[in-house]
Design goal:
208 residues, alpha+beta, Protein Transport Mog1p, Chain A, eight-stranded mixed beta sheet, two-stranded antiparallel ribbon, 12 strands
Length: 208
Amino acid sequence: MPRNHRSDHYLFIMHIYRKPHSLFIIPVLLLLWSCGSGDKKTENGKESTTISAPALTLKPTDLSAYGIPLTIQAPDGAIISKEEGSDAVVVRKDRFNVVVSEDKYVDEDATPEQAKETALAEDNKMLNDPDMGMKMEVLKNDPSGYVYMTTNRSGGKIVRFTCYVKKDAKKFVIKENFLDLNDTDKAMETGYGISREEAEQMYNALKQ
């Protein structure tokens, strides 16, 4: 079965509430980490952290051997595998880690652009919930994809993206591999479970 876009959000919210000691912490000490260093910037008089993601060497990567008739841009040497119990394909190398899956969309007649608008509206409704202490900010909004940042009530941030693609009458969704990339240790160090730089780098490589 295709990976469920909404179930990822449920797992995300439950993950936060089960680990208040990790994602809810905004550190005062900025540490170096394997994907780059953190630089301090001032926003509205407060210090924030910018994570520098390393430059990627990308190459066309054909997924047709895995049942996905798409060629995407991915890092040289990326590992491709099928997600267990699913038709979804995972493409990963270090912090580049994405899931590509066939999806009929909520409305089977929808174009990728229409499916994207529906998903974005649902995300805005779900993730701007004062009762859950959540806030969503759209960082990039393209015809068939978007990048967004969620912030919990204590300031912990996760940046995610969704791309919609149609090829040979089939429809596909490409997302960051949230369950692998959401790093609570990095969140403790930097304030980000998945940084904007990481998410945008993957998104820019994959958007059609």
